[in-house]
# Entry
Amino acid sequence: MSLHKEICNYIVKFSSKPVQRLGYEPPKKKRSILRELYHKLIFPYYFKFIRAPYERWQFCATTKFLREHGITNEI
# Structure
């Protein structure tokens, strides 16, 4: 047999075996007390009064810009 056929047979022989998947879950990091307080007390208000209005404004401004230039695809 030629070398090419030998290599092909080797590949077929070992590639047909089922591969065992390894289930990996990264370890969960425990948050510090300060970080927990931030996520419970400060972040909801930051999101409600600062981040969400800014994102709404940014969306409206981008939409306005695209409409002015005729780029949007509206249904």
In short: The first helix runs from residue 3 to 15.
